[in-house]
Amino acid sequence: MRVELENLTKRWGDAIGADGVNLEVDHGEFVAFLGPSGCGKTTTLLMIAGIYKPTAGVIRFDGQVVNKLAPKDRNIGMVFQSYALYPHMNVFQNISYPLKLKKVPQEEMRKRVERVAEMMGIGHLLDRKPAQLSGGQQQRVALGRALVKEPQLLLFDEPLSNLDARLRLSMRSEIKRLQLDLGITSIYVTHDQVEAMTMADRIAVMKDGKVQAYDRPEELYDRPRTLFIAGFIGNPPMNFVDVEVVQVDNTFHARRQGLDLPLPADRGEKAAQDRPVIMGIRPEDVSIADEGIAGEVYVVEPLGRDDLVDVQINGAHLRVLADPALNLRIGDQVKLKINTDKVQFFDPQTELSLLWN
Amino acid sequence: MSSPQQSDPVTPSGQKAVLVGHGLALVGAVMALVGFYLPWLGFVGGRGLVATLSGARIGAGPVIRLGENVVVFRGSPTSYLVVVAAVIALLVVGLAFRRRRLTGWDGLTLITAGLLPLLVLWGQFGAAQREAGKVGILIQTQYGLVLVYLALLAVFAAGILHVRNYSRQNPSFRNTLGAYAFMSPATFLVLVFFLIPVVLLAVLSLTDLSSANFGEPWNFIGLENYRRMFSDRFFPKILGNTIFYVVTTLVFFNVGLALVLALLTAHINRRASFFFRLIWLLPRITPSVVYIVMWKRFTQVPPYGIINQFAGWLGIDYQPYWLNEAPWVFVILVNGFVGASFGMIIFTSAIEAIPKDLITAAKVDGASTLQVIRDITLPMLRWPLLFVTTYQTLSLLVSFEYILLLTQGGPGLYTTEVWALTAYKRALFTYFGSNQWAYGAAWGFVLVAIGIVLSIIYLRVFQFDQLVQEPKIDVL
Q: Are residues B164 and B32 in the same domain?
């Protein structure tokens, strides 16, 4: 099913939930709404589900306006962070509830529930109550309940946030695989950029009720259009340094005390302003080298495969991913090499990218 | 691995304290026995024992008078407590000596054995002294009593000393003690305001105490009061009235209307729902008498009655005193309007406590509002429903004040008279100036018994034990 949101807005008095959200989700696409808490992603999701009535704007399913349609008539499945299993019903009753409401015959209902339960690997738990299940099992039941009525649209509201880290990893790939196999259009709300990056075909980055960007994950990662997106996407997060970009002879240089970085011509030209700008550089694009910018190790955080090293350069801090074999210690003097093909520049006032707008 | 020192936690100084405690308890127990029997054993003019064996009935009080000016402290039921306490104290200490150590529980037992009779006797001592003052006191009696006091104090002190000492050395016992300390206020309330009164009620119902023989010793007459009650000509009527009143009010108002109100107010605008709940609370916060006067006015004959005024405007000529015309309707309305607000508040908070996600999930699953209420809200209200039904059944069973004020059980003979009202009238309503306390107690006691049986049935029907079931968790 194709979903279109047009200028979708939700207000409660002065409080703004969603503010003019425009986006479309193609048939079979997996879209993530990504943003910090309170950014309006769940509000938008609940409007799509029909729980909230939009203050303004239009929601279209396959071209049909569904603003006035009750949730039960939208043929959607939904999975919640809290799992939202009915505590007084056992697993079978939970999964079969949507079918029961549709008055599906008993025999067919049993078959469909068993098929979904088998698919989710919870076939042996059908007579348990939710309270007797682990978090991962509960989430599978919730997923099964969302899938059993064969919805045209799946809505996920931070479904993995209550699971422990390892389980989250395995459920992540399971959900992605399931979505791909079933080809159901899906919208996935999360504040975890890793989840969004790994699972979604496209990500809508939201802040203060507005969609900041709506694009493919690699686009957002390589060409962030705003400072917020640059800082929100990527782990460990991007480094930001205030610099002045000046033209010396024919090359552009990003400069601040203790730092003078020659820039590629295309980026340098766009970044050159008559005032300071914010330079962004990802930790993986900085490396420890024999030659380069001098700095002092401020903090070392071993991550296992890499060490995340915080290097101080005249008051500015750069996080760098370094080889643990270097065995860096706090206070060590190091030299940094920056991959200038990947640097980003932002206007400090508008917080917009100087490169991609 | 525990060293010998650890297995025996008593330190040298602790050992001393334990010894002192043992000694005090032992001395106390012996003194209690001696002190108690001292007046009995013939010290009082050589007549104590005789007086006890041949004396007046048990239960006459702490003091009786024998002859011109002799006061004997003798065995009233409460003072037997002292003997029991002394025996317990002796047993505890004796057993402790056999196992060569005193546990914390022994200490607690000693405290109770010392304190409880001490408090009881304290009250009695005053009575004994007043009586003694009237007739001149025999010094041995006083000695005996003082000895008993000291003995009980010794037992009590031994207990305190030991518990303090023991709990210092046993953290687990100290924790247990803490748990009991937290439970004690509730236990105290249940004991003082339920268990003891019920026992008193039961005992009272076996006597013939009334305003006619007030002040005389209780005269036990067996189950006569119960025989009289069950063979009362109006007993079936009163029983039927009670069942009708409780069931109707409960089903239609205290649970039914309460649930409807809670569900309605949960589905409308917050501010409006607050306002409606406030309105439904008004009957409860209106003083009973004012509330009943309003209802009486409401049902009066012209030109006072409000119903009849409306009837007049509508051109209806039939304008009776509605309270006499349909007494039950108003008895139930009056109680139901008050009772509904209790359930409404409980249900409202329970409904609001249901996670929003559950409701959203059900709507997305395809449920209409009514289906959400039927499949999600109501099943999740099982515990508050049990609570309100049980609580309100019991409170309706014993409630009679609105009926008393509204109809006095009338009009006519026993038309709206319920069980609790009968109990009240027999025991305390001095229509002919005769209060049949014991007979009223019989009615009251049966009501208590019915209440307890009903609560047990409710707990079974609602499968209370399942509501507190431990979850079984296994890892994925």
A: yes
Q: Give helix then strand counts, H and E, for chain B.
A: 24, 2
Q: What domain count does chain B have?
A: 2
pLDDT of residue B10: 46
One-letter amino acid of B330: F
**Residue B361 predicted with pLDDT over 60:** yes
Segments forming the whole domain that contains residue B437: 224-467
Q: Is residue B375 part of a domain?
A: yes
Location of structure tokens 């020659």: A262
Q: Which domain holds residue A294?
A: 239-346
In which band, very low, low, confident or very high, does the pLDDT at B189 lie, cut at 50, 70 and 90? confident
DSSP A283-322: GGGEEEESSSEEEEEEEEEE-SSSEEEEEEETTEEEEEEE
ipTM of the complex: 0.80
Q: End of a domain among A197, A232, A267?
A: A232
Counted across chains A and B, CB pairs separated by less than 8 A come out at 78
Could you tell me the pTM of the whole model?
Answer: 0.67
Closest residue in chain B to residue A145, using alpha carbons only: B365
Q: In a 10 Å sphere around its CB, with 0-12 CB exposed, 13-18 middle and 19+ buried, how is residue A94 labelled?
A: buried
Question: From edge to edge, which strands make up the β-sheet containing A64-65?
Answer: A15-25, A3-12, A56-61, A64-65
Do B161 and B234 reside in the same domain of the chain? no
Q: Which of A78, A122, A189 to probe by mutation at the B interface, max B CB count within 10 Å?
A: A78
Largest CA distance in chain B: 99
Distance from CA of A267 to the nearest CA of B (A): 48
C-alpha separations of B68 from A277, B38, B47, B71, B137 in Å: 114, 21, 13, 9, 11
pLDDT digits (tens, 9 = 90+) for A107-165: 999 999 998 888 888 888 888 898 888 888 898 899 899 989 889 999 999 888 888 88
